[in-house]
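Input record (Table S2, row 192):
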Amino acid sequence: MFNIILFGPPGSGKGTQSEKLIEKYGLKHLSTGDLLRSEIARQTPLGLEAKNLMDKGQLVPDEVVIGMISSALEANPDAKGFLFDGFPRTTAQSEALDKLLKLKQTEIGVLLAMEVSEEELVKRLLNRGLTSGRSDDNNETVIRARIVEYKDKTTVVANYYSQFDKVVTIKGEGTVEEIFSALCSEIEKRLS
Ligand code: B4P
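Output record (BIS(adenosine)-5'-tetraphosphate complex):
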């Protein structure tokens, strides 16, 4: 089993690259953003709570996302590996993920961190907001709040995995194909 964390600020291209990576490597895609948006669309109690926080650019509580990931891991016992997109976003989520993977006798193979400048992130997300219908994409104040939340709470996740020598940084600016090729070359190094 080979498990990957795709890491980076909001708008760095995690969702975009995940689609290509899961197709190439046959991994199961687990995006906490997508799981939360599905709860919102179904108007579940969890979705209503999450929407309130996401609309302000804030993170959803750890226990909620950890519970969702735990259920998704259990629901996919035959996966040949997982691609975690947008998870973990805090140290508590990282520690919980390590424990869950240990129960499955596996671990994270690599954390691929995509770096993109703040102005480019804002530009991409405002642009996506024109068509996505996502309420967290169409307001620059909320977008900047998401970036602050990332700096305050999420950058520590890369520090957590660097103590196990699992972090690789990738330039997240350029064409989608250029970035995909850089990600694949790092994955291949670790698969061989
Ligand atoms: P997410 O759904 O994870 O989304 P994201 O960070 O906004 O976007 P991503 O990086 O996937 O960007 P994309 O590829 O789409 O999170 C949303 C919210 O959910 C969070 O703010 C939080 O509230 C909550 N949440 C999720 N997970 C959580 C967790 N674990 N704990 C707590 N809360 C959680 O790319 C963005 C745009 O850029 C697209 O329009 C794309 O077309 C464009 N783009 C991509 N690559 C490009 C390139 N190379 N050049 C130009 N444009 C590019």
